[in-house]
Amino acid sequence: MNELDHLLPEVYEELRRLAVRAMRDQRPDHTLQPTALVHEVYLKLAGSSHQPVDRVHLLATAARAMRQILVDHARARASEKRGFGAVKVTLSLADTPSEPRLLDLLSFDEALNRLDALDPQQVRIVELRYLVGLSVEETAAALEISPRTVKRDAAMAKAWLFRELGLSDADRS
Amino acid sequence: MPIDPDRYGRLRELFHGMVEHAPSERPRLLAELPESDAHLVAELKSLLDAHDSAGEFVAEGLAAHQLVLGTEVGANLVGRQIGPYRLERLLGRGGMGVVYLGRRVDESFDQQVAVKLLRPELASPGLVRRFRTERQALANLRHPNIARLLDGGATEDRLPFLVMEYVDGAPIEEHCAARRLPLAARLALFTTVCSAVEEAHRNLIVHGDIKPANILVEAEGTVKLLDFGIAKLLEDSDEETRPLTSSAGYATLAFASPEQLTGGSITTATDVYALGVLLYRLLAGCHPYELAGATQVEATRIVCEVAPPLPSKAVLAAAESPPGTPEPRRLARALAGDLDQIVLKALRKEPARRYASVADLAADIERHLDGRPVRARADTVGYRLRRFVRRHRVAAAAATLVTFGLVGGLLAYAREARLARAEAAHAHVERAKAEQVRAFLGKMLSSADPASGAGRRVTVAEVLDSASSRLAGDLAGQPEVEASLRETLGDTYLNLGLSREAEREFRRALALAGADSAAGRERLAQALSDQGRFTEAVPELARVIALCGAMAKPNVDCVEALSLKMEVLQNLGRGKEAAAVGREALALLERSFPDDKSQLAEVLNNLGICYGNQGDLREAEAFHRRAVSAAVAAHGERHPSTADVIGNLAGVLDMQGRYAEAEPLYRRALELQEAIRGERHFAFIRTLTSYANLLWLMKRSPEAEPVARRAQALALSALGAEHPQTAYAENTLGEVLLDNGKAAEAEAHIRAALAARRKELPAGHWLIASAQSNLGAALLTQHRFREAEHELAESYATLASDRGPEHEKSLLTASRLAKLYAATGRPAEARRFRDLSVPPPSPR
């Protein structure tokens, strides 16, 4: 068990606490915007921790926590009876034939786990780039690799996930 | 073969080596791989293919989740208070965020509003700040068919929000379907939408996100447009990177124009396009493009490259027509022709080839409803002819006024308004007459349709000519109908710039009508004036004024006739009489139509130009100042007329040497003209040139250079090399370059100006001499003394005799001659001209 796994429950709880509080409509703007959340958690932990906390590890931890939250949320929604809270979309997405497909979060998470077994670094890159919202350069600095590698690994991870999730043309036809 | 970390690692090496190469190079690179494992190569190929279509699917997919989560949280905001509004009920959610029904709590009156909470990631300080500055413009947008934006800002926890008038209605397409609206009703509804969009454009606000969901129709049939200017506001706030959302364009992909999809500039033409998509859907019941399931990249390609099928063809392909419209085959027949062409013209890929304004689009639909020929078809048949004519008409109109750099953009504008009024009057011809006219024109147009013709292309002018010659025979014994038809033909000729033919029709119409009509005679005068036959126009106008005077009530036609007479006299160089007529128009207007501020602004502006041309700059300034207030009162500041009168005021201050006062006014006029008319419009180019000239006069030539270069380039491409305005721009650029020590380049531009002026103006005109003086200076700087002396001496002779030896150009030319003679060792002549170059010590 590494340091990340030690921290994970703590971060997750903190994230969840914030999310729950927000759901009770205390501070709605803080809710589910991963970047803001993760930074806030980071500040909290960095301020209270007895030992110096490595920002890199924290971000990675938070990213995985966010993944967990999104997945939990998706599960909860999947088990909900249809119809509840189904407000008709009348504003902007209505009648748009090409609205972006929602990612199937559960499949996405499983695919990420499979990729983790093949190339953990690519998964870290996906998490930092897309869940935490770091730039290529920031991701490179966090993982101590070159930006070029970040780009190429991110491209490969995306391609692999895309195919794995059955989104490529060959799969659709 | 199941993949393991080692194989994946090998695959990663190969992928890294390939991914940065263009897809076209891949087959070669793949063939060259030393890899013997065929499975691995196949795997690599498949991954590269997936890479090509994956795009940013992770970022976008996650962003969408965030949105869903965010809105679920938002659902709990019912009961909360935002600003003075309590949220009562969730109305909907979408790409931008959530919308609640809100109610004002701090006022005695009961006001329901729609409160839009925007996505938190839009809460950049930049957006909130820009929103504050734009709010006034948006809040001032008052139109019965626009849902007003009432308020907005950010909550204390930085959640941006907008408060809008609450509209309880159905999206326009649902409304049409539910009420089973027939074609004509759909078109009428659509023109109402156009009038709302037009109003916004008049206020320099582009919607940028027109689509059925943003156009609601209330139960009793009132159309309301939502979200005016907001789309653009949000898009422009996008300076910061938003890695998780590239979605501003998403919600509206289906209605986005090519320029929106490719990152081009968003203008009023963008709204024209979106209206075209809407019209297509209302008429044909389907979307112009097959976009279902397309990625953004695919959709962009389709929208930018694929020509949409004609609505009439799309209807035939569809199984059923929209509810309330006839069955597909009959509907297709109704759409074929006019409506097909109108829709296609709005949907052109290049913004410049669409309708120039929403008003033009609406006007064409009204023409169709009236059975008159539509412009969209003229565009296909007589396109070249019209362009040719228009170019020459502008040139002709501008030639007389450009002399002072103070050209009446408003005059041209007034003419358009007059034509519009004439057309409106036409629309009210009694029903029976209109029916016959309609039938006749319908016959004419179908014979001119290239598709039904004998394969030869027919010009609009030919159609009109043939109509004109057939009229007498077809309508024998119905002089009234024939007269009204001939007036219509005359108007059309006039619009095409064929004023000689227009004159012929107006004369015949007057002869047929029996009684003398003021309106008919005024049109005749206009046709004569357009041909430059000003002397003949004067008595016609006198007749119009007499006819109007004989009427019981003061008539607005009379003001127009006086206004035209002023223009005509001005063109005849009879400035004093023109001023007197202008004052008469002003008096009549103030006495009988005190509320017609728009007409007042026009008359005051023309009076200002008139006095300016006579050199009475103080008086001119007073008129221009009054014109500005009248224009602001009539139209607000953000209107083409207002922009033009501000530019004219700047010009008259400039001519008095009050440069510091003129400068901010020029800047303001430029800002307005560019935004509302575009950079290729004559009025903008004219003001830009005057502004460059002002900077030059203020000895700020380095600053003037880029301005002058832009003015010259725009004049050349938009107006052509022979236009007088282009000559002015060339000359100004030459002067600026001369100051900046670029004599050789200056010479080329000054020569261009000189050539154009020699062609346009009578020999010996002082403007030719002025350009010659500049040419002399350019030659002098290059030490080409003999040529310089020739130009400068000739120039000085003309300037001193025509403008007087104390005119600034004479003084300037004398100082140039002094320099020349000093440099060539002729001290006596140098001294003589140095003395002539000193202004006399008189007070200004």
- Rg of chain A from C-alpha positions? 18 Å
- Strand portion of chain B: 5-15%
Cross-sheet strand order for the largest sheet of chain B: 1-2-3-4-6-5
What does the overall shape of chain B look like? globular
**How do the SSEs of chain A run, as a string of H and E?**
HHHHHHHH
Major sheet summary line of chain A: none
User: N- to C-terminal separation of chain B?
Assistant: 97 Å
Mean pLDDT of chain A: 62
General form of chain A: globular
Q: What structural class results from the helix and strand content of chain B? A: mainly alpha
The greatest inter-chain interface is formed by:
A-B, 61 and 75 residues
Mean pLDDT rating of chain B: 78
Number of alpha- plus pi-helical segments of chain B: 38
**Separation of the first and last Cα atoms of chain A:** 43 Å
β-strand percent of chain A reads under 5%
Question: What does it look like?
Answer:
The complex is a heterodimer of chains A (173) and B (844). With 173 residues, chain A is an all-alpha fold. Chain A has one domain. Helix content of chain A is 68%, strand content 0%. Chain A is built from 8 helices and no strands. Chain A has helices spanning 3-23, 34-48, 55-79, 105-118, 120-132, 136-143, 147-164, 169-172. In chain A, α5 crosses α7 (147-164). The termini of chain A are far apart. Chain B is mostly helical. Among the domains of chain B are: 5-54; 61-165, Phosphorylase Kinase, domain 1 (2-Layer Sandwich), CATH 3.30.200; 371-515, no CATH class; 518-594, Serine Threonine Protein Phosphatase 5, Tetratricopeptide repeat (Alpha Horseshoe), CATH 1.25.40. Chain B has a 6-stranded antiparallel sheet with strand order 1-2-3-4-6-5. In chain B, strands 7-8-9 form a 3-stranded antiparallel sheet. In chain B, a hairpin with a 5-residue loop joins β5 (149-154) and β6 (160-165). In chain B, α32 (701-719) runs antiparallel to α33, α36 (785-802) runs antiparallel to α37 (808-823) and α37 (808-823) runs antiparallel to α38. The longest helix of chain B is centred in the first third of the chain and has 20 residues, at 183-202. The radius of gyration of chain B is 32 Å and the shape is globular. Mean pLDDT of chain B is 78; it is low at 67-75, 237-251, 379-432 and 444-458. Chains A and B meet through α2, α3, α4, α5 and α7 of A and α1, α3, α4 and β2 of B.
